[in-house]
Amino acid sequence: MVSALLGPAPAAADEPTPPEPPRVELVLDVSGSMRARDIDGRSRISVAQQAFNEVVDALPAETQLGIRVLGATYQGKDKKVGCQDTQQIVPVGPVDRTEAKAAVATLRPTGFTPVGLALRKAAEDLGTGATTRRIVLITDGEDTCAPPDPCDVARELAAQGTRLVVDTLGLAPDEKVRRQLLCIASATGGTYTAAQSTEELTGRIKQLVERAGETYTRTPTVVGGGNACPGAPVLGPGVYTDRETFSEHRWYRVPVRPGQELRASVSMALDRPVNRDYGVLLRAVAQDGRELVRGADAGSGRADVVSAGLRWSGDEPEDRDTEERDADVPAPAELVCLVVSNSFAPRAGTGLTPGMPVELTVDVVAAAPDPRGPDLGRGWVLLALLTVAGLLTGLVTGLLTRWWVATWREK
């Protein structure tokens, strides 16, 4: 009966299954600029080769690794040909360490820098699946072959709804390179790091490869929020991904029974330049439009992600008869509307589509005694206790003071 009233069953994340192994592809720039000898007195390519060897030696047994290069084979000046120069030299899978290091050792800086094309090909190399997949891009220069623009490619990959993260490592102290690599990383929820020494590069690549086994082991469920509460998708507990345009409101519905507590959080990735003074708001709203609770800002630990979260629980049912309680018949669920809103404004020239990445986490658990206030009640009991404690403290302090004064005078 309840399901008939609520309509289709809520969308939910898939049931847990044994996770697939972490999949990572290292993408190395082997263009002509990698000959520069400005890292610890060595060429950039030799530093990268040493870092790759150490990473391969320390690779976790369960991690599947691939290596792709760009600008490694074409020595001519025909840009049209040179901008197609990207190859996978180690396929993604269990690694033969000897073969992988031998393949990297033969690389010599050669041609152009088709970063955008290499990112597309790397995504194809990693394929699809339930696990988070990571691309680690190591380069010393910006793309010299656009289109495709690598930042647009990163947004394109993120918009596909798959859990693909691109981390970027810059080997040259160049502001244009930094901005491009930061844009690529931000679009996919990855990180940007400038590596100015052999130790920094090796340590950061190892850290990123290890992180592949620590992030999400399942892809969030793709869902499309509605433009109003009626007709919005019904969600069960799980992790969901959506896209939201600038200053938009996206609506979702979650069934919550009396005695249950709704917990929800939302994160939005700033994958393109936006004006300052922005924010994300998460609200729970009743079917009649009443606002039930407004979420609080939550620190994400990253400057390129803005988050908010909320908790709400309905009251215990008072009109259920004894037979229902004894039989433990569940009370009808109330559909609570979740609204995700943002106040982002694009900077001049910023693309408006696709929308910015949204990740929504939903859970419904047994309600705490009173999640909206302290355990002592709704404030009156706490206030009374504080008042009594203040009076007693004042009385004791007064008596001690009089005793001390009387003792001092006797002396």
Automatic annotation (TrEMBL):
This is Ca-activated chloride channel family protein. Residues 23-212 form the VWFA domain. The chain crosses the membrane at residues 380-405. The lineage of its organism: Bacteria, Bacillati, Actinomycetota, Actinomycetes, Micromonosporales. The keyword Ribonucleoprotein does not apply. Keywords: Membrane, Transmembrane, Transmembrane helix. InterPro entries: CLCR, VWF_A, vWFA_dom_sf. The keyword Ligase does not apply. PROSITE patterns: VWFA. It comes from the Bacteria. Residues 1-22 are annotated as: Disordered.
